[in-house]
Every structure is written in structure tokens, then in C-alpha cells.
Here is the input.
Amino acid sequence: MSILALIHPTGLIGTELRESLERRRDLWQEMLLLTTTEEELGTLTEVRGAAAMVTAIETNSLDGVDVAFFCGGIAESRPVVEMLPPTTAGIVLAPDAEPEDGHPIVAGVNLETATRDQILVSPHPGTVALAHLLYPLLPFHPRQAIATLLEPVSTHGKEGLDELFEQTRSILTFDPNKPHNVFAGQIAFNVTPVEAAPEHLAAQLKTVLRTDLELAVHSMQAGIFHGYGVSLYVRLDDDPGAEECAQVLAEHPLNERVEDPELLGPINAAGRAEVLVGAVQPDPAKRGGYWIWAVMDNLTCGGALNAVQILEAVGHQMTH
Here is the structure.
């Protein structure tokens, strides 16, 4: 059994992680809730059915901790990562973590490369989704992959969720005053380009997949609360055919092929532990080219559950 610490635990991903860990009490004995921010300090919550409070990180707060999870943004996480004792494993869940912040791990793809002697990163949800889609296709020697990610507002935390809700309410009540503190303009019932290109996704994917696949990723901000939509075009040197391609994707343990692909949307992924794979359509102009549509919950499959599986891997190392 082990002692865990959750750093910045009250955001969306921190809350989802804590709830996921409550369902896996076999992996830990004690959980500390720590923060560097005034907003979280003193927040009252629950751990193992008992009241628990978020307390401030001090010099020796992480002494005796076996695994520390970093649930905030990378800028606020880096100073605490530097405080880790040599015996404490670190798992970073910041979606904006850069390659130099740690080794990215996607369970079911490269979990065997997770070791306690390095900082491990549960990477950007887009990286997780694309890894689960591309990894099963590696035996067919993909030469090129181009992906468009539809990002939900939950990537911006509770503030993003609240703003989408308020914008939606303003539209439905014909109120011209739509809040836009998080987003530059109206995001409700809308799709807009993401200002900053997710350049680190390609680097994370190449590390996770251990391949030099030619890869391009573009993101769009969608007016949806939770769940990623992934439109992936891939060209395979060894063309298996559309049905075989779909079957191989479905056999990957973290994927599930849906029965009605034409009805699949991000809402179907809410709370799910898998990537839901929809249509797999051949490109009529390019042999070996396929369009793949999939959706994934960014907080569960793309975040907390991936981190829990990393914990399970490093916890196994602690007992052997």
C-alpha cells in the first residue's frame, strides 16, 4: 500500500482523479491534498469516506509520499515537481506539459516504459486519443497521419464550463450580453480555431508510439461541454481493407467500435473508459487512405483513468 499526494486537486481533472482513485482503494492507503494557490487552500472534501482538507505545500510536505499527482497547469506544477524527494514518483496530468517536463505514457500503448526513476506525464487528451487510434495500425506501416481535434470547453476548467452555460442561457433568453472572459467570442453553438497550435502533441505521440510517422495535428474549439471528437486521416503502406482496419481498431483493449457510427458524437463518450470508434471510410482517391472518426471523454479515458493505470504500473514496481 502507498501514500499518495494530489497537488492542485480541486479542478476538473483533480476531482475526476480523486473519484477514480476512490474506486481503486487497493492501490493506496493514504491520500494528501495539497496546493500552492489561495483559491484551493482550505477546501473541504472527502477521502475514504472521511472529511479531508486541502492544505498548503510546505518544504517537507512530500516526505514519505510514494506517488505525487500534479493536477494543475504545468506552470504551477513545475516548482512543486522540483521539490520531489528522490523516493517519490511524479505523475503530471497537465495537458500543456512540454516534452522536457517528463516521459509521456499512454496505458495500453507504452505503459511498460513507465519507471519510478523519471517524471511521468499523462499527456494531452488529444495525444491519448490519437495514440489509441494509431497504435493498432502500426503493423500496416502508416506513412502519414493528419488529425483534427474538436476540443470541449472542459479543457479550460470549470470557468470554461460556466461560460458556455451562461452564453447558452443568454442566447436562449435573447440577452445580447454574452460573457466572453475565457473565450474571445461566442463559443456556444459554435466552432472556432484554437489560437495556439498544439505543437507538443506531435512530439508526445512520436515518443509514445516510438515512430517517426509523418504527423500533423490541428485543433478546433467546439461549443460542447465534455468529450473530444477526433477526425483522423491515415495512409497505410500495407492496405488491409476498411473492414480489417476497423476490426483491428476495435480489438485494441482501450477502443470500442460502436454499432451506429453515423450517430456517434462526443456526448456518447461521457464517463466512458474507452475511445469510441465510429466510421472507418476508405479514401477513394488514395489506396491505403482512411478517414476515421472517434470520440473520447477527456477527463476519464483521456485523463484520470490513464493516470490511475500509470500508478498501477509504478506501484507494481514498488512491491517488487
